[in-house]
Design a protein that fits this description.
The structure holds two protein chains of two kinds. By secondary structure, chain A is an all-alpha fold. Chain A has a domain at about 1-80: Four Helix Bundle (Hemerythrin (Met), subunit A). Chain A has seven helices and no strands. Chain A has helices spanning about 1-30, 30-50, 55-80, 95-115, 125, 130-140, 145-165. The longest helix of chain A has 27 residues, at about 1-30. Chain B is about 70% helix and about 0% strand. Chain B has helices at about 1-5, 10-20, 25-65, 80-90, 100-115, 135-145, 145-155, 160-190, 195-200, 215-230, 240-245, 255-280, 290-310, 320-345, 350-370. Chain B starts with a helix and ends in a 15-residue tail after the last helix. The model of chain B has no long low-confidence stretch (mean pLDDT about 85). Classes of the chains: A mainly alpha, B mainly alpha. The interface between A and B is medium-sized, with 30 and 31 residues.
Amino acid sequence: MEFLYFLAKTGFYATALVTLGSAVLVVTLRNLFHCALALILCLLGVAATYLYLKAEFLAMIQILLYIGAIMTLLIFAIMLTNRLADQSVSQTNRQSLPAFALLAVFNVFCIASLTAVPWKINPASLTAPIDAKILGAHLMGTYVFPFEIISVVLIIALVGAVILGRTDQ
Amino acid sequence: MTEFLDQIFIIAKNGALNFLGVFLPDWMILLARILISVVTLVAIAPVVMMYMTWLERKVLGRIQNRYGPNRVGIFGLLQPIADGIKMLTKEDLVPKNADKVIHFIAPMVIVIAPLLVLAVLPFGRNLIAADLNVGLLFFLGVSTFGVIALFMGSWSSKNKYSLLGGMRAFAQMISYEIPMLLSVVPVILTTSSLSTVAIVEAQLQGKWFIFTPWGGFASLVFFLCGVAEVNRTPFDLPEAESEIVAGFHTEYSGMKFALFYMAEFISTFAISGLAVTLFLGGWDGPGILPSWFWFGLKTLILILIMIWFRGTLPRFRVDQLMGFAWKVFLPFTLGNIFIAALWVSLPFPGNFIADTIGITVILTLLQVFNRKEMPKKRKYLCAN
């Protein structure tokens, strides 16, 4: 059994490495389509991390929405630009050094705040069943306000897209 | 006897595990339990694909009044194996300007998704590789991978026809994914579960969802969207031979080309299997024969219907394809969720009446709003 725990731990570190590595590739590769593929790998890594945290529903939604919908749309958008066939688009400009400095400061704050929070674990939530019924009840009850706000924002985006895309008049 | 035949695969698996348990430690048994299911699925899927190609060529031949393959073995049964050997010995060509790495990876990535989704299909009573409590979402999420792999192949070939095929595939997927997901929502609504096993168990003893008013229409929409999802005729625009050579796999040869076909056929099998699970009662059937037989029979019937489509229907035009998804399927499936909610919440005679009225209203509205529109008269102005 210890060997299996060791395997699981190795798997987690490998997942983290792949996620972070592909995230770096997203911002360094010179071809837009390669960047999009690296982003897919990164999002898959995040989904795998959710699986490690026993959040199967979240992991599947991550795959369905981010890879199935958003990445498909993103590649579709890249396809419509003339950058698709370009071999090299530089992703950096001359201000990368100050950007790195700012990022380092930001990271220090992030790490400091992450280690300062106690992260209390509710033991009841560890064994709670993930049921479609319970999720639906929460979405329509406890979290109805954010849910409705997201719906309204999406409707506004849809209407805006229709207005922008209209050709008549 | 029936009970034994019904559970024969599970008994075989447990027997093998018990035998291994004599001389292997616990953690290796745990791994073996997973590996046996995985290896079985990965080994069976190519065989299923091989005999689906045989079946398709046979049935298409009969539709077109000819014999189909009949030279290799009895009824041409060894034809798929001969094809496999031919594919493996063919030269592997890579275009000079191709993006070598992605061109190489794409055929491998494209078979992963159809193989993964087989894990959540209940092939019979207790006969499922992984009973996830989000199995349905897993299936729908992972099957979207196919289109990205497909576009990888089409883009990396650096061929205009390939790219056109990939673009068509993308547009088609975006359009048909939405009605497909929405047509599944009523099933989740009724069973209040995302597990494929629970969905089949809710339909036992002939209470199949296809016999309910909402289920009849939803299954039709789901099946047609499924056909579109696996790029089969009449939705095979991405690989339209008469227009864009062979679409996304123009620049592939040998075994890589065969992998694209393998992905298509295994997806066809998986989509048929999911349609059976969601609407046709899964492995439910008269208890005389084992449960996996009923699942196989229903899946085979759906596959035969797809082959029948291919033998009889012409290809859609691009605008017809898009219009069909956005103007007919999408509004209908949205209304269908409401109809399914009425079915669940009302008592017996009321729900029939409410559903009949609801479906009539939706179909009438669709008919009214989708009237044939005469195109506006074009005005040609002379440049002066």
